[in-house]
């Protein structure tokens, strides 16, 4: 940890003053109100040591990062059958694109683009009696953190401005790949995206993907080793919208970003690291977050390659 700590401090100071060419997104009105200067980092090693700097304890909207947890839960329920509903290929298109779905007959390219995450939500709505509560319970259990919660404000803001997601869900339903009521699936989707966490909470909750022997405080295993390995593979190839190749190239870790400006990256068997900086580059990934992680894995020589 000492080695990571010094390197994180140095890169934090270096990047804090770099001009941020990103922009805070405004398509979800509530998200645009965030102070763009927030910048925090937290690392959690698999032996449960933590180190954070900057705004690492402030909660923010994790947005698409929550798709990791919805996928984990759906994968747990469905096993390989899940891949009949959603593919595992990078999309090469923007995260909210409708384009490819027509050609692919309503089967989304992967579970991390919006179309795929909406199908995953449909799977969960089919399995859970009270999807919102039970999903939250799942997240609370894997993080051993009862304080995790949705932001009703953000969920509402997204609901009233989520025209593309509403279109996506209806479009997929027309192909028969949404089984439940569209409004119920979307309400669940908007809620999982509104989940709030700090960098510290985010790097802690992702540990189930880094630690082969992970069990929750209740003694439950989250995923088998084989399933965790596959999830990391999808995160590496699809976790950063149509910039996943670039992230693998520059950073070299599986991970996931969200339009709230958060990124979590996983080094299997070593650590999880979360970065938050709200201004996004043109592809929707945190500008400073990516820069930070690129420097971090270079200086610590700790990419997976
Ligand atoms: N809730 C956002 C949306 O559906 C998530 C986007 C993201 O973080 O990638 O547009």
Structural summary, described in words:
The chain has one domain (2-300): Beta-lactamase, CATH 3.40.710. 44% of the residues lie in helices and 10% in strands. It has helices at 2-16, 67-78, 99-103, 114-127, 131-143, 152-161, 163-174, 182-193, 199-205, 225-238, 244-250, 287-299, and strands spanning 40-45, 50-54, 60-61, 196-197, 255-257, 262-267, 271-276. The chain has a 5-stranded antiparallel beta sheet with strand order 2-1-7-6-5, with helices on both faces. It has a two-stranded antiparallel sheet with strand order 3-4. It starts with a helix and ends in a 6-residue tail after the last helix. The model has no long low-confidence stretch (mean pLDDT 96). The protein binds glutamic acid. Glutamic acid is lined by residues 63-64, 95-96, 114, 158, 165, 193, 258-259, 284.
The CATH class, by name, is Alpha Beta
Residue ranges: pLDDT <50 for 5 or more in a row?
none
Alpha-beta content class: alpha+beta
Bound molecules: glutamic acid
CATH superfamily: DD-peptidase/beta-lactamase superfamily
The CATH topology comes to: Beta-lactamase
Give the C-alpha Rg.
18 Å
**What is the N-to-C order of secondary-structure elements (H for helix, E for strand)?**
HEEEHHHHHHHEHHHEEEH
End-to-end distance, in Å? 21 Å
Number of E strands: 7
**Number of DSSP helical runs:** 12
Beta strand %? 5-15%
The average pLDDT value, as a whole number, equals 96
General form: globular
As for the number of domains, it is: 1
Helical percentage: 40-55%
